[in-house]
Amino acid sequence: MASEEELFASVDALLNEEPHLPPPAERARLREAAGITQARLATALKTTTQSVKNWENGRSEPKSPRLDAYQRLLNGWAAKYPAPGAASAAAPVPAASSETAASEVETADAPRALAVPATGPARPATPPAAASRRPAAKKAAQPAADPRFPHGPLAVLDGDGCAYGTGGILLDCPATTVVELVEWTLRESGLGAPRLHRNGKDSDPLIVLTAAAAVKLGLPERLEGHEQRRSLRLPEDHPVVKQVVKAKWRLTQRGFGPWARIYRKAQGRERQCVQLAVLSWDALDERSWPGVTQMEPADVARVLGVYATRVITPRGSTAVSGLELMTALRPPTRAVRDEASGNWVPGHNPGSLGTEPMDPAPPEATPEHPVVVNSGWTGGFLNEEAYQWARPVDLLTDEECTLPFAVGLDLNTAFLAAAARLVVGLSAPDHFHAPAFNPKIPGSWLVDLSHVEVDPRLPSPFTPDGTRPTGPAWYQTHTVAYAQELGYNVQPLEGYLRRETGAYLDPWHDRLKNAYVDTLADLGVTKDLDDRAFLTAMEQHKDADPAMAAVLAAIKATVKGGIGKLRERPQGKKYKEGERWPALQRPTWRPDIRAAVISKARINMHRKLRNMAAMTGLYPLAVLSDCVVYPSPGESPLDFLPYAASGKPQPGGFRLGPTPGLAKLEGVQSMLWAVDLMEQGYNPARHIKGGDAVLDEGE
Q: What is the pLDDT of the chain when averaged over all its residues?
């Protein structure tokens, strides 16, 4: 093994040799010739950073030969090959990959930071075909760095005091207690993110603790108990909690759990709040963040950093983040001038849900809600849920049973597609008797739709289980409007309607749609692929880059969980019916908005099913939320989807593609397998992928 001095000498020689080589090729040759792995590079940086720190604190003299050689390497490398889109060495930009050129970063109020290649196993490169389809300008474009937050939105802290930031940033964190960590984060780290709306608030910095970092700070490596670990909290008499309180910091009512918020009252405009996430306490749910907890700290920082840049800095589960994103993009207040005093004061922000919680109409609430229990309401409830339907076996034809395959199609983020341009109520509901139906007014309508005829080979559009209604029931506006679209007269008996309306979810939809499409593109699935190439790319996309695949899963979970949080049910065994639970204190506890999204998604699904039957004569075997199973002569959706003579997909039916609302292949099984499940009373759509699908109810 060569000594470090020999290592640096060989690196310097290579840097001065053949300058015409492109940076990636020369960096690859540099690593091969000098024998530097990414892990060794990170280790050397730790040593150098600690040496500088000791020198600055007067504890020891720097080892000048090593430091000078390594500094010369970094400066030379950064000068010859700056990161794409980097404005200056003082304002680092998130790197596009682990091979981003290293550069030294210093700010007046932040600790010394080195931008280095991310540690951990090398990530597979994006396939050349996918890379060539992405516009170069878009790839190079980077958001302007906010000078207040030079080191990005978050960092992952390991047990050695190294905080891994986005873009390969490595910070030296001297904290040995949680209190010291909070103060370092606010005063020295340079972490945080600017607000997403001019009337909103900046995102608080996030520090993610590895198991080793948690133990170093005095926290238990695991939270143990009979409840789910994500629901557990440190007891109030735990030494760390006492330290926090003694230092005059506060914890939110959720206490010190996997996602802990530590804060002091804001002074003027300056917020004093730090979000902590403890990896070994299951802060990152495996279903929403697959494989992330097993990654190296630098890769965890990459995953969360991309999510923070494209969606929002995580503040809890993906469901919590989905709800927080709604508020961040539609802040409840804005500055207005007080005519009496001339001062600027907080006022209502039009289009938002305001600052005060709002009780729903009785049929929109849940059975345990106070408006139901206290009023003795017995008039029924909205049942706007996702489909769980399988066609009766006796309605299968001989021709269908002889087809060899059952092919499942899955609609991309169906709830997100339904949120686009969705008009919802913003004010409290008003009660009306025998109102004339108006499809432009959001609300809940009591109406009898049992007379609407639907082909028995299709599910009813009005019920989640696909059965025909038997009498009057409560429906959301989109469901009643679809009955009109089918040509039937509707005469509501009652209505709880809202006078003030708006497309509240529009910015939420737009941001998450862009995040979803951009992340799929990073995995090689781009908009310009034809259907055959799209199916091929989707087969391979999860293997292209596990980190970006985890980001994609988190984005999808954010959509589903955010919609579900609009009607969060009470939790805990001690809850008694009729009591108010904490979620009801949020202005975003709006079951009527959740019902509107799910109603529109279900109606969109039924409209496509009806159009498919008209164009192809095919009827579905089963539907589960956004997944539909069709009998098929081949193993590919291309064998039964409708195409025009020109080769273009027919409008109105299911279409393949990477954007929300378009379809992808969910799974393929034999027709015999599907019929066997249906005869046993099971839903083939739940198992078509080869496992037990999760029902996307928005819960």
A: 84
